[in-house]
Predict the structure.
Amino acid sequence: RQFELIISSLIVFLYVNADRILSKMGEGTFGQVLECWDLENQESVAIKIVRSLQKYREAAMIEIDVLQRLGKHDFTGSRCVQIRNWFDYRNHICIVFEKLGPSLYDFLRKNSYRSFPIDLVREFARQILESVTFMHDLRLIHTDLKPENILLVSPDTIRVHDYKIPIRPPKDGSVFKNLPKSSAIKLIDFGSTTFDHQDHNYVVSTRHYRAPEVILGLGWNYPCDLWSVGCILVELCSGEALFQTHENLEHLAMMEKVLGPLPKHMIARADRRAEKYFRRGLRLDWPEGAASRESMKAVWKLPRLQNLVMQHVDHSAGDLIDLLQGLLRYDPDERLKKMKCANSHSVQ
């Protein structure tokens, strides 16, 4: 209720400063995002209004610092969302961004989770990997890459015939699906971004996109972003998250079902909080340690990576599988390196 009053006050504040509120674009634990019209520059902007809680304020200030740093080096403005301005209003950090289109996740959701065509996924992969490489070259690790944090630049769509049965068929039985009119995308949400020399939190990344070294407590660095990219690309091809789980043991079991056994040298180095997931420190405690039959079924139904890709890709599957196998290697030291990813033939 108090936050709503702050929003109302902010609306008045914006009106006084010759901006118009157009709509509420989104809402989360951090606060709200409003679409506004900037009369001075004659453009739509998105204003992220952050709750006054200290942890959200700190994340917002990190995001502002990262955005300004990225903006100094992103000369074409094509890698990451552009910051226009920011201000502190009654202890609420407000960040003004350029207005972009929907996230890749929102696009999938509104399209009944119909997957993107492989050629479009390839173009998305190129841009994502180039943007991640751009960040890594500046010694920045995003740590929260996911379809929700990748936005289409334009909201425009085209309607095409869908020859595949969607994962969740629409109620109207539509045989058409929407595709983005433009493939241009940008990364957003840098509140969790970390410099490589900073102290690293024990756990990073949203669950479905979390790398094995994070779960095992082995420490993490740049490669955790590349694992997330691999998970994202599978989701764009299939329409569903690769590892749909909320629990560590089940998550590791899903990884083994899709990618094969975890390397023994990683199991041997697992920290005390992760030791419980293994039997005598030799193999994963699965299915013995499964929490329920439903959990066992969720793991059992997953296909191997190659088969999963072949279910959804009608051509050029080989190149995509090679790329995904490189991004989804367990050992972060063996995962595709940032420059190799950006210049790989697989993403051309």
